[in-house]
Specification:
The complex is a heterodimer of chains A (196) and B (463).
Chain A (H helix, E strand, L loop, with lengths): L4 H19 L21 E6 L5 H10 L4 E3 L13 E6 L3 H5 L5 H17 L4 E5 L8 H10 L5 E5 L5 H10 L4 E4 L6 H6 L3
Parallel strand pairs in A: 1-2, 1-3, 3-4, 4-5, 5-6
Chain B lengths: L1 H26 L1 H17 L2 H34 L5 H22 L5 H15 L8 H20 L13 H14 L2 H86 L6 H24 L5 E3 L1 H10 L8 E7 L6 E3 L1 H19 L4 E10 L2 E8 L26 H11 L3 E7 L3 E9 L5 H10 L1
Parallel strand pairs in B: 2-4
Antiparallel strand pairs in B: 1-3, 4-5, 5-7, 6-7
Helix pairs in contact in B: 1-3, 2-3, 2-7, 3-4, 3-6, 3-7, 4-5, 5-6, 6-8, 8-9, 10-11, 11-12
The chains are: A alpha/beta (196), B alpha+beta (463).
Chain lengths: 196, 463
Amino acid sequence: MKKYIPVFICIMLAFILLCTTIRSSPSKPINSYPNLPAPIGGEKILITSAGQAAEGTILLKIAENLNLEADYRPRALATDLYDYASVVIVLGYSANGIAHTPRSFAEELTRTDQLVEEAEHMNLPVVLVDLSGEQRENDETEKLFVQIVPFADYYIGLKNVKHPDKLLTTLKKHHVPATLVTRLDDLSTPFNSAFR
Amino acid sequence: MSKEKNYSLIGFLGLLLLIYGEMFPTFITNWSLYIIDNLNNSIMLLDSGQLLVTAFAYIAKYVLISFFIYFGAMLFALALSRDLKSITFSLGFIGLTMAAMILFNQVYNEHFSYLGHIVTVGAISLLQLYIPKQKYFYFIFSLILFFILMASSWLQLIPGLSHLGFGTNDIAVSIKIADSYFTENKLFNTLATIFFTAFLTIAVILSLLVHLVNKQVYTLKKYQQQEEELKETRIALIESSVYQEINTLVHDLKTPLVTVEGLTSLIQLKMQPLENDDLQEYFNRMDKSLLKMKDMIAEILSENIKQEISIQELLEYVTSHLDLNEQQIDLGIDIEENLPPIYINKIRFSRAISNILENAITSFAGKAGYIHIYVKRIDNGILLRVQDNGPGIKTSHLRNIWEDGFSTKNSSGIGLSFVKKVVENHHGSISVNSIPGSHTQMNIMLPIQKEGEQRNEHNHSYR
C-alpha cells in the first residue's frame, strides 16, 4: 500500500488544482450590449494582433465573410495606419507567435502602445477583440489589455472569462462599450455593427 | 563499485536528457513555424483536415519534448534513489518532472497546464509499479511513457475540458479556438477524446499484460525450482533407502556367519584332525575366509573403519574380483617403488576403484583396448590414475558424471557419485580428463597420512 503514496499525492494535487480552477468559473449572468447602436468606424480596416496569437486570422475570415475591406497585418506599425479608416486589434499573447517575430514581448508592448496612440492621434476608431477568453488569461495578455483599453472605442470578447465582472468594470471605467458573446460565430453581428 | 559507476552513468544520462528536453524547442524553431503557418492556412481555407494535421504536428512536438524530460527525470531519480521499487524513486520522479515542467514554462512562457502534467506523472508513476524491474524495464517504461504522453497530449486538445484547466498551452489554445470557429468544438471534442481513450487504454493494457506475463514467468520458474528440489529429494530418498537395505542385509548376514563359525569350530573339535592333515588345511582356509567375511561386514557397516594397506595389496584385491574373461582388454598395473601404505576402508575403497574399472570395461563394449593403472607419489599424496583408450566421455557430460542419477547407459547412475563420496570421505580428490575417441583418465589423489594421524582420526570418528 505504501508504494501508492506518490500516486495519491498526485491525485490530491490534481484535485486541489481542479477545485481552484472550477471555483473561479463564472456563476452570475453577464450583461453587455448585443452590438453597437451605430457604426463607429469605416473601411478600410487594419486588423492587427496584440500578442501575436495565431487565431487572429479568424477575424480576417469573419471580415471577409462580412465583405468588409480589411487587411490582416499582425505586425503592423504606427506608420502603417495612414492607409486605414479603422483599427481592429486582436488580443492574445502567444509565446510561439512572439518567438517568430524579430521582437521581444517588451517590444510588442511598445509597438502596440505606439499603434493605439497614433490611432488616437489620427482619430481612427480602435476596436479591441478577444477571441480566446479564459484560455489566454495570463499576465502578458493582461498587460496588453491594460495598455490598449484606454484607447479602445469598442470591445468584443467572449463570455467565458475567469473574471467577467472585473473585465466589465475596467471597460466601464474607460467608457468602452462592450459586447460579450458565447460562441465565435456570434462575433459577426457586433463586429459588423462597428462598421455598418 | 561497478554498480556505483552504473548509477553515475544513468544519472548523467538522465541529466543530459533533461537538459536536452528543456532546450529542444530552440533546436526545432522551424517545426513551431510550420505548426503556426499551417494553423493560419487552415483558418484561411476553413480546412478542418489541415487543422487536424496541425494537431498531429503539435502532438509530435510536445510528446518528443515531454519524452526527453520525463525519461530524463526517471533516470535521474533512479540514480538518486538507486532503487526502482522505492517510494523515494517515485517521489523523485514526480518532483523532478514537475520541476522541469515549471522551468520549461518559465523559460518559454508556454503556459502549460500543471494539472495535465500532474495527472500524467501520476498515471506513469502508477503504471510503472506494474512493470517488472528487470532488464527490459527501460524499454517497457519508454513504451508506456510514450502511450501515456500521447494520451496526455490529446487530453490537452479536448475543448470540453478547457474550463477544468486542461490544455492551456499556447498552440493547444490556438487549435481549440480554430476548431471552435470551424465546428463549435464538435470535431476535437470527439476526435481528441477518442485518441485520448485509445492511447490510455493501450498504455493500461500494455502495463497489465507485461505484469501478468512476468507473474506467469515467475510462477513457472518457481515451479521448475520446486520440481528440481523434489527430484533431488526423491533421489536422496532412494539412495538412502538403498543404502539402508544393503546395511540391513549385511547386518543380517552376521547371524548365519556366527552360526557357521560356531559349527565349524564344533566340527573341528569333534573330528580333531591331525596337524598336517588335509582336513586341518581345509579348516584353516575356512577360518580365514570366515574372518575375511567378518572384516568385510564390519567395514561395510561402518564407513569409518579404516586400515593400513599397501597399494599392491589393494589393487590385487580389486583385480581379483574383476571378470575379464571374454574381454579383449589389456589390464596393466604400474606402481612406483617404495610407496607408503595408505589408510583406507578397504571394502568401500575397493568398490570405488572397481566401479571405475567396470565403467572402463563396459565402455569398450567387447572391443579391444587397454586399461592401465598407474600409482605414484606426488608431494604429500599418492596419485592413482586409471587410464583407458575407450570411446571417452562427451565434454558436455563431464560436469554431470558426478551427479546422483546421471547415466548414459540406463543404469542407476550412482556408481561415480559413490566413487566421489568414498574418495572425499578419505580426504582425497578425484578428477577426470577425457578426449572423446582418444582416452579417459580418472585421477584419484589420496593424502599420505603421517604416523599418529591415523589413530587420531580413528578416535575422532568414534566420538
